[in-house]
Write a structure and sequence with these properties.
Shape of chain A: globular
CATH architecture of the largest domain in chain A: Orthogonal Bundle
Strand content of chain A: 25-35%
Oligomer: homodimer
Radius of gyration of chain A: 16 Å
CATH topology of the largest domain in chain A: Arc Repressor Mutant, subunit A
Distance between the termini of chain A: 51 Å
Largest interface: A-B, 34 and 34 residues
Order of helices and strands of chain A: HEHHEEEEHE
Helix content of chain A: 25-40%
DNA sequence: AACAGGAATGAAAATCATTTTCATTTGTGG
DNA sequence: CCACAAATGAAAATGATTTTCATTCCTGTT
């Protein structure tokens, strides 16, 4: 068992929102940090074990990580131009919580996205 | 664009619950069906496009498919055993509509999923 | 300071699901 | 029967993730 490399965590923080292991790695490289991809993966896994970060899956199956507890938001995405608006999801949080309780689920997280055509398109 | 091979759909039905592309393939082989893995993938994709099957992700990132039962619903998925409960999302529908209006979006759809640990895990 | 043993690191190879390529087969209308 | 499009599948390519393993880095101990 290895412990997490602190620079990985700090990079994930700086990334804001979600980032995949590959993205964290590329980001660190671009910033001149000397680190191996393996270490990035190991560190992220360790952070997940310690429940310091959440892990989700993108549509394509790539794992994306995010700081636990970080105020998370949802997205409103335009199908046509790809423009994205960050929106708040108070209603969702409540819904997720209620549904989870109703079915005896614990440690729940959720994903929610809205997509459509923005006013310009 | 290829159309779905009907044997793939029928195998997915017979599998009950969720099955990954690899599982559908193995199942068909075991039953003596002559089919290629590529065709299984293509057929499943096509079924997803036609909204005949749902696709989700297991914890390990593998895509799992299942016949789309009813109309529009959301999922409560166990991260550990993959058990899935279909839940109703009235709150979400409303939230999506309000958020879309607020930002001038039209023709909106949405995705929402909750995941956690079920009572058995 | 030198040393030992364990943890951390990363390059390269291995894995595994999924996608792409491409040559072959099949089916259908003319 | 022929031509042409769609379907098929074997093999290669892709891409994320994991494993292997040799090396480096710590840290506590003589």
């Amino acid at each position: 068992m290895s412990r997490s490399n602190p620079r990985v965590l700090s990079t994930l923080e700086r990334a804001g929102g979600f980032a995949s292991a590959q993205e964290v790695y590329r980001l660190m490289q671009r910033e001149g940090e000397s680190i191996g991809l393996t270490t990035v993966y190991r560190s992220l896994q360790s952070l997940v074990n310690d429940k310091i970060v959440d892990v989700l899956r993108r549509d394509d199956g790539e794992a994306i990580y995010r700081l636990c507890g970080e105020a998370h938001h949802h997205h409103l995405v335009c199908k046509s131009c790809g423009d994205t608006v960050e929106i708040e999801g108070g209603a969702i949080e409540k819904w997720a919580k209620v549904m989870a309780e109703e079915h005896g689920f614990r440690e729940v997280g959720h994903t929610a996205e809205i997509f459509g055509l923005c006013s310009k398109c």
